[in-house]
Protein 1
Amino acid sequence: MKALPAVQTPARTTPVSPWLANPTGQLWHTLTSVRLALTLILLIAVATLTGTLLDQVPASVANDSVAYNRWLEGARGRYGVFTDVMARLQLLSVFSSIWFRGLIALLVANIVVCTINRWSSIRAQVFSPRVRMTPTYFDRARVGATFSVNLPAATAAATVRQGFRSAGYRSLTEDGESVAMYADRFRFSRLGTFLTHLSLVLLLVGAIMGRVWGWSDNQFIVAQGATREVPLAKDISVKLEQFQEEWYVEGPPKDFSSELVIYDKGQEVKRGTTRVNSPMSYKGIAFNQAFFGQVAVVEVKDAAGNDIFNEGVPLAWTSNQGKRPVGFMELPGQQVTGYIVGPEPGSYDSAVPLGTVRLELYDKTTKRLVKVESLSRNQDVQAEGLTFRFLRESQFTGLKVVKDPGVNIVWLASGLMVLGLVMVFWFPHRRMWALCTPRADGGADVRLAAASQRDLGLEKDFEQVTAKVRRALTRRQQDEKRGAGHV
Amino acid sequence: MYDLSQYSYVASFIALALAAVFYASYGVTRRRAVVVGFDADITASIGGPRMPAMTASLGRWGTILIINAFAFLTGALAFRWIAAGHGPFSNMYEFSLAFVWGTLAAHLYFEFRYGLRSLAILVLPVCLAMLAYAATVPSEIVPLVPALQNSLLLSIHVAVAIAAYGAFVLSFAAAVLFLFNRQDRFHWLPRRAMLDEVGYKAVMFAFPLLALVVILGAVWAKVAWGTYWSWDPKETASLVTWLIYGGYLHARVVRGWKGERSAYLLIAGFGAVVFTYFGNYFLGGLHSYG
């Protein structure tokens, strides 16, 4: 078996352990690298951008091969000969592609491994920081300060502590020949990085839960006065009491609302109004106002005068030619099925004048058009042995019915992410060290230094803290002098 | 109120254009001062004590004009808010004014906190371009369509975006000057280390906000459209932006990516901001509010 590719991270600086010699160890090591994280993030960014720039297969089309092929024909107009290659490479369905999911999976592995790998060192920084730094550290510190004071080392140290405290820093002391001190602020900020990274994993868990246990019906149509059962939750049915639309005088829409009654196993359980920005929900199922349209209420009688159809036909689809709204009616026990075509909205339609609808009858077996009739309101029309009557116009509501059991996990993850990011970037952990070394003359040298990464904020903070410490030391020195004078 | 808002907008535009003139003369005279060796050390602290009097006063007037522009713009937004009855964040005209407002706020913060005037070389043109663009789009107050009628989310979602975008303009300016000032050869510009730091500081401020923008967008999408994420072009584009800045934050600790390459990421990130901002013109989707 071939060994895994060589580790890219600075192996030079890490001592080589036997663990690294085996492939698992190497894989682990690769997954701990920030370089891999950076590569993955940028690749995902490029993939996401690709998915933004190229037309993507709509979700409504993805599972319907006829609709998909029709969509692909449309895409051919844009992408020409490359269309098939692009479709094969899943460039037209980036976000459900195998390679995109692969990248996400790798990123998750990267995050988990990095988290485990960094946990002990960050825990040490937060919970058991190193208090004593060597004099060399202070010599080399890029950000540092030294004061010589006429105070015993222990007194000086206590005073420095006071200075830290007044600057909002907590401090830890380690006594010895010289007194060592560590001071920090916002230490829990370091844990924010775990919150942020793990929240991404949690986010994915929520999204997957939604995909596995959730569903969505984007085309749930109920005509005014009708009751329909939700296809994906058979116990639940919805009645539309009334649909209302409001328009501003200036033209744009103002409000769309549906008065709904929800039934669970035939029992009324909820009644209310759903509008665009306030969906109704029941048992974790949300009913969102999505669209609306015309309904033609049609009555059909057979030769014997029995009602075989009497309800609203939602004209929820659009005709292939032109922009006329079309609805479908199933005529049980008949040789034909019916389509109702409404007038094209917003223009004079000579084929379907206002106030009328067109009836098209198709043979159930041959799928051929057998009859076209114009239906005027309240006038009987005979066709194929049936009597059709267009009773009145009405409206339907189009709801988006969604069940997503993962959504609360997603919100939790989102909250944790923002919390983590705010902790890490707005309240960065600040660390400083001090060393009070006694001098032969009874005084002490106080040295201060800050963690050495380049950081303007740190430098500013260090200046402020140093000023506080200096002030505390000066005051203490004066107090001592005054005290000595009295003796 | 609407008229007051329009006047304030024009006043702010004029003040900003004048500020640009003052900043440019400030830059030119300072540059000359440095070139003749009058004050080679000026980079150490910009606006230092030995700056020629004329240069200093040009800079001061530039700052005063920016503060004025900022105040007028605040007025323009506030009057519009009152006139419309909702946060002025619902069309491209309002976004543009708010965008410039956020950018000027970020600029003033960095100018006062770190004494950095030179960033205005790039920040002011971006702002002027935005204000000029605002003049080309309809400014009438149009009532809100149903999807936008959520005044809490409308205000917070867009206001947070504006704050983040303003800071990103600053990081963009810092990155461009960083790349331009190779080996610190232009003494009239801030040192590279400082520019690098400013770029980072701006992203530190804005990155959590951008996450919040995307999340608030998801919350709103859930409420108004039923699903929190539908790969709509505008939400996808803002995810790209977030990923690029996320990449930048990681790049800063990777060997070989510090410095120049990170600066390029900042420029790419700002490219993504602009792309997302104007995305509704060519991407379509659910965010097409014009």
Protein 2
Amino acid sequence: MTTPVNVDWSAITRDPRFQSLHRRKTSFLWGMMAVAVLYFLMLPVGAAYFQDLFKIKVWGVVNVGLLFALSEFVVTLCIAILYSRKASSDFDVIAAEIAADFANRSAPAGERRADRGVGA
Amino acid sequence: MTQPLKKWSAAALFAVAALAARTACAQTPGDTDYRWLTFAVFAVIILITMYVTYLAAKRVRSASDFYTAGGGVSGFQNGWAIAGDYLSAASFLGIAGLIALYGYDGFMYSVGFLVAYITVLLLIAEPCRNIGRYTLADILAYRNDPQKTRVVGALSVIAVSTFYLTAQMVGGGVLVKTLIGINYETSVACVGVLMLSYVLFGGMIATTWVQIIKAVLLVCASLVIVALVWAPYGFSFPAFLQDIVVDPRVQSRVATLLGDPAKNMSALELGQRFLEPGLYFKAPIDQISLGLALIFGTAGLPHILMRFFTVRTALQARRSVVWAMAIIGGFYLLTLFLGFGAAHAVGPANIAAVDAGGNMAAPLLAQFIGGGPNSLFGNFMLAFVSAVAFATIVAVVAGLVLASASAIAHDLYVGVFRAGKPVTPEGQVRAARVATLIVGALSIGIGIGAKGQNVAVLVGLAFAVAASANFPCVLLTLYWKRCNTGGIVAGMLVGTIAAVGLTLVSPNLTYPKAVKAAAHKVLDGEAAKRAAASEALGSADNDVVAKAKKDLAALDKAVTKAKADIDKWGDSTTSFMGLEEPLIQMKNPGIFSIPLGFLAVLIGSLLFRDRRAEAMWDEVYVRQNTGLLVSKSTAH
């Protein structure tokens, strides 16, 4: 499937930069995921069990329920943008650094440039 | 392109042109004077997509071109293509319809469809790009036993795609029939032949462009309609909704939905109720279960996952999801105006009269907004929205057929059947085309065979299987060190069986006993209702007489339907599964089957130790996080 190149994968996992990337990425991703799922579930739960709250009119005929449903769009897009920014300014940079470093160590000379281009 | 292929494409083009011409001669819901308009709009859209396919066909040389457009799609293009793949007729016409008929609850669907992409963005898209190549099973086969995981992976992909495909084909057949008046079989064949010509000749390159074109058309059409609907209110949100609340047709719709409790409510209270939850979803647990299936199922839909192999890097995969979310989110916000706008302009009762599921809400609104059934612009709008709906079905079906064909050709044929006997690049493309032809022909057959069946349940089932089998397997092989072949096989089997099994004993199926009991209840009440109505006919009040006449007409309709139901079900007392009544009251199995799928992967992995899968973990984890070496698998 791929050109056999000897990359020492376990050496990368022992690299402190990779370990720190892994740790920060894991907590960021799963934290965001939890926020998104919980916020999403508040909509069906609210619509089913807190109907009195959802029915309160706040802006002409517009009620809390409608505003809450609209807020789901805002929160979802905010999470997407937040992650996207964090990934390109932080995760991608470190990953590219590690990738370039190890690719140079292990790949045959002709393939170095292509590999470095991947993470950038 | 080779000579036979050219002949084939010419034949396919002729067939489509002939069908399109028949389309134009058939009865349309618009004024018959404007048939030429429908024909022209359909012809233009079909010709554009055909031209794109012609250009794409010249570029399809390798399996990578056929399955993933050679990895040469940009994040921005892929975002539009994902939106085109995802916004099926069910969500475009269906959700606008649900909002037009049930108000607030319809809009709650939209939210789930968007939030689903958070799962795709955060957990699935980038690792899949870095690990996979053409198919979902590629990801599973990476560190597990390739043959076993390819077989279960391919079977699950085929199951999910078949459920989804059947729903799209039947829905599409009915829709095209309603929109342009040709018969059901011709509609299905028309969708099938057109879709086949895109996929067969243009592979993923043509499919991607058809999806992009369709998404752009869909968004433009919706923007124009919403602008026209909303402009009279100076683009004020409360003013727009105020008009919905005071609309007598909306108020009477709510009164019909609520039944007895509506008697003590004022007209304004009834109108306001349309903006509040609870008119469509009756059991809260169903709603939560459906929500879970939506937000985890999307990340397991093979035709969506496949789109991430068409971009070159994880960064582009991420960009494509963010673009897709912006387009999909924006579109679902528009459905709020399409749905409420249709309820106000056309009236819920009139929409339900054309199609009980509300699917015609958006097209009817388009016709009204353009100036009504007798105007040129009104009919242009109707023709345009109909053509977009048609393009929608074709584009979604193309993506599904490509996903199933890749599972058959790449996973089963190349990966399992010919394991150890490498297939030449030409052989791989040929296998992909043969598989496409088989899947395409089958989909037309299934579409025609399932005529008149209740297929709405199948979309829910596709999401449930994707969430309960594909999602746990893909997620855990990417993120859990101990995950292995045993876990993947167990997860795929248990997840699929649980989701399908629970659906088969759920209230989604038809239970003859309940249908007949309801029918008998209608017949038993007939005499009393008829007496009451006849008495009212003698009243001096014109309103009372009019209402009595309406009641009588409705009663006649209900009695005819009840008699037909009793005839249809005859002596049968059990559902398709041999049950007299549903075993569970849940309409969507997600809340049980998703945890079961995860549990099966956990237990399966712990029971069957697999040293190779564990030894490969470092590589999998580093690759998915760094994208190291990924360029090798896409370059050719």
